[in-house]
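Continuing the batch. This is chain 6 of the set; chains 1 through 5 are on the previous pages. Same settings as before, nothing changed between runs. Recording input and output for traceability.
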Amino acid sequence: MTSQFLQFDRTGNPAEVLQLQERKLTPPEGHEVRVRMRYAPVNPADLNFMEGTYGRAAHPPCTPGHEGCGEVEAVGDKVTSLEKGDVVMPLVGTGCWTQHLTAPEHHFAKLPPQIDQVQASMLRINPVTAWALLKYYTELPKGAWVAQNAANSGVGRAFIQLAKHLGLRTINFVRRAELVDELKTLGADVVLLDSDEGVAEAKKIVGHEPVMLATNAVGGDSAIHLMDLLSPEGILVTYGAMSRRSLKVPNKFLIFKNLQLHGLWITKWFEKATTAELYQVLDPLVRMIETNDLVTAIDEIVPLAEYQRAIKRAQEGARGGKVILDLA
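Output for chain 6:
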């Protein structure tokens, strides 16, 4: 029995270095589980990994794909936590762009059998990042204001939905005015252009109410806008650098506002999280997916054989959501 997978032998432009390969499958042994992968999104982290610009260096030949979803097809004779037919989410970090994935059983999280597998394939990175941003840095009372830039990103959209679920109010900065109504429909309370004028308007809206948490995925002037909006003792968490501009902190924000600056890389969180901690995060997110309270927008589902089209589409701007590889 053979299986197809995507692989790159050198770093570079993903559309040029990625190749479709085939290999012979072997039965899982011991604690190994073989999963028939169904869907996997194309994330910015996947593109950066192939380009050689990701936080963790690639050592080609590599199979990309930081997240996905599939069903257990076969198990080794010592496996106790999973059985054939279980729906699972890989926790391997990379390697999900394959029709079959074999790994030790503890590298998979079991999901409800009825879950939407396309939505589940996008659960591991963006929703978990948004959850960590909202839950791990400060305790916020219901009705509290939280702010973010890159509100139209995958994490940003999850942040809006989770904040609403937790009873928080969101101030969302975007670069394009046409996103305002769309994000408000998603549950955003305030959507403003990421500009000096937008910050001034946000200050008018919140009045004397504090803004104690802001999340930054852009850097540069956009991060300064968030620091300007934050209240004294507020917290800025940086989890991305879309502008590729460094985070520069004006002295006044440290001296007079005593802002706290943190960084989040969800890959490191997964490496350190215990099984109990993992399911404390996954369980409420899974329930939200099942009730359609957490929905990730999809631009297009592309067959594995057309992977080059999927990559090129993922590299384009102004998409309507995630590009998904159909690995069937």
